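Narrative of activities, Objective 1.

The group set out to show that a structural description can be obtained from nothing but a protein's sequence at a throughput compatible with the screening campaign. Below is one input-output pair from the validation batch, recorded exactly as produced.
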Amino acid sequence: MRARTTTRLRWATTLLVVLAPLAVLACTPSPEPADATAALAASGACGNLRPGPAEPPAGAVVVDPAVTGDLQAKTKANPPGTTFWLRPGTHTLGTDEFDQVLPKDGNTYTGAPGAVVDGRNTNRYAFTGKASKVTIEHLTVTGFDAPDNEGVVNHDSGADWLIRSNLLTDNRGAAMMAGARQVMTGNCLKDNGQYGLNACCGDVTDLVLEGNEFVGNNADDVESKYADGCGCTGAMKFWEVDGADIRGNWIHGNRGPGIWADTNNNDFLIENNLIENNDGTAIFYETSYNATIRGNTLKRNNLVAGREFVDRDDNFPVAAVYISESGGDARVPARTDKIDIYDNTFEDNWSGVTLWENADRFCNSPANSSTGVCTLIVGDVAKCAPPGIRTEPLLSDCRWKTQNVQIHGNRFDVNPRAIDCQAMCARMAVLSNYGSSPDWSPYQGEVIPEAITSRQNNRWYGNSYTGPWTFIAHDASRLVEQVEWQGPAYRQDAGSTFAVGGGN
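Output recorded for this entry:
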């Protein structure tokens, strides 16, 4: 486990400086949810990017688009902490694939209205290196040819970068990588080949994503390049990130998931986002820990993936919010010790919330697709092997558990005709599979289906349902109606209301 090394107070101080466009909203009463959703869509970053200064700021070095490579040359020639003002026009970096800008600590790159940094489908990366406290603002960054799983802006995950009011569009790979304490606000990340954002691979802490728009990402359908898929596409992906606030973003029309946190992420706050019309899951929290998901509006997500499952006669309950081998654990420091899903509005998604735990996926199992990675509690993969794994504490701690998930105060509305659903939609689920592999696994049989359903403190309560909702418990074959779901066998959704086909 990593100890928390920064405080949320620093975030608050930073945001007072960088989120000026949101200050008026912060000082006025919160609108009703429907009004807030409409306002967020109407003010989406892609149509409302803040323009940069029309004249160079005092002391700024002026960058000339007519001179190829002027941006790199002047960055190299000037000291750390320099501000560069890019004139209107198209700035190019050279003809070699590795021509790129290497900022120095504290540099600022600000674009005049109409300033574009264009990789011309030749250069791999725009801004790279390990410099800290770099600001990128008011630029269009386009045409860069980053490889899969690599990024164009902040390619090497430098710390404390501020990325605001940029258009990052039509790049291959990911438009942006993330470093520790990175703040991303008011950006439009549109039509990039793989991801809008890729936050990856340890030492990335305390991110802030606020007021951005992610639309049309995974434009290259990267999953189709791999025989068995890659699990590496969507609007944004997080891997081993400790602390992220994702708020007030509009995430829509992406090919794949909206928000995907995969493998040993912790302490996420996902709030007040509008997540709609994504081909895949709106929020996918996988083999990770401790999160709050609140106040979001999720509309028409997973319709493409849902129909694909129907076409191949796969009855797995694909959902708008998918919690997979993830849960609350007080031993991992965070602002919460559970996964708390509340006060969200779900409208015409393929299904609602699925809690899943793969009985065959655990640290040191061949079924663990996060190869070589162990739980945050154990850390060392080699420990999760016979005979130790057969007794406590390893018997419990070698698993990523779907536990301590609370789903309450949400509104779930669905009209199957509106989403062209003939079967296998409008479902809520808590389930696992029958454990079978490897042959030394201590989790074989019904151990995990029984645990996730009845013994791991996963509770629905106080929700509102409209539509013909059904429920899956224990395993994919066990479809139950509302009365049984609420009854003594499962004791779910106490105090919830059901209308129009919900069972009453």
